[in-house]
Amino acid sequence: MSGEYNLTSNVVELLYEWHYSIVSDRFKEANFKKVSVQRLIHDVNDYRLLKLYELVLSKHCLTSNNSNEEDSKPLHEDLLSFLLHDFKGKIAFDKNDYQEAVVHYRKAEKLLYVVKNNFERADFLKRLGFLYYRIDEILASTSYLKNAKDIFSLDSTYKLDELSCRLVVAGIYSEMDLSPKAEEEFSSILEESLFIEKLHSYALRAYGLHCIRHLNFKKAEEIFSTLLCEKTNLPVTTALKGKNKIDLANVLLKQNRVSEGSSLLSEANLDLSKDKDIEYIVRMNILYHLYVNHDLLVIDQQLNILVENNLLFEAAELALDVSYYFKQYDHYEQSLQYTELANRFKTKLKVILVDKGVNIA
User: pTM of the predicted model, to two decimals?
Assistant: First the structure.
């Protein structure tokens, strides 16, 4: 899967550079990029990526032959631009570069009219909803996800996509303290996803996180213990198992079961040793230095790692977790300090988006 992702990422980057060379009249450079793409394109199976290649190739041929602008209209220039920005946005999102992703997705959104298939449009809206959730634009995220869900619900073939949209919306309800509404939606999703093993596993995780957020630690412990139980036969990668252990450790530590929680963190460290999920590695380290080692300097350093990687939404979430810890023990001054830090992270995220020319309204 990693090799396939790297191939797609490399091809998209080359196509983007090739297209830029063409429109910049750098034909020597464009020819070089063309050859580079053609060395890789035979191993690509994504029909949308192959379509993008055909469009860029056609533009290259027409431009190098000095065809006039009227001749280029059959190229569907807007479709070419849509696909370029859509792919660039998706790859940036997968790299957790949400600020770059939103720039490309916004450009693609303006060209969405070129996509004629309703379910392909819904797929794009779903990904926009996921992105806006990651940059803390809750209202925009909810709107896009509900629109996508309404389209997917028209055909049972897209049940997985429909439930994926609803799962994120349920998480949003949870974060907005709409607990009864979240509970109702989680319950429905868990029932409907019972025979969709992979999604059911993620739905359980999301529900467990909801329970932690609303201080239902016993229920959260039950859920994450179920996810880690070998007898459930739920499909879980080693990295995801490590994340589940960290979440269960969080539950145990919040109940002052330090020895059990610390042991799970050690196990998770081994599970994540080959994983590059910065968020959960930092989360693991913060839990250890908050509940076990009691080192605020390391905690602040870990939060800065997220900031340096532009994971400001995640940094804000973890700062609020640290704030909760101090509030638990009536250390209100330190609790307020980390609440304010979380707000600064969120403000910085907005400023970065504005600096990139993104105005979400």
Answer: 0.84
